[in-house]
Amino acid sequence: MPSKITVGQLVHQLQTFDPDLPVCLAINPDWPYAHRIGRIVEITGSNGAVYIAENGQEGVLPPAVRNQLDWADV
């Protein structure tokens, strides 16, 4: 996976999943918690980007998620 992805690439990846599933962020292998998604904002201009804010923790990531992210040994 590239270190940067575009909005189009993210949308394409998300379209392969059940649209009714909740979405969480997995941020840090040393602190493997699921985080809720907060606001999403766009900054325009030459350094434009879309930012997805974190909106609190959901709980510890299940072992299956950590395994798929290759975080099991961390």
Describe the structure.
- The structure is a single chain.
- With 74 residues, the protein is of the alpha+beta class.
- 19% of the residues lie in helices and 35% in strands.
- The chain has helices at 7-14, 63-68, and strands at 24-26, 33-43, 49-60.
- Strands 1-2-3 form a three-stranded antiparallel beta sheet, with no helix packed on it.
- The longest helix is centred in the first third of the chain and has 8 residues, at 7-14.
- It is globular.
- 1% of the residues are buried.
- The mean pLDDT is 92.
Portion in beta strands: 35-45%
Main beta sheet: 3 strands, antiparallel
Question: Tally of extended strands?
Answer: 3
Strands across the major sheet, in which order?
Answer: 1-2-3
Shape: globular
Mean pLDDT: 92
**Percent range for helical residues?**
10-25%
- Look at the helices and sheets and give the structural class: alpha+beta
Whole-number radius of gyration? 14 Å
Could you tell me how far the N terminus lies from the C terminus, measured between alpha carbons in angstroms? 19 Å
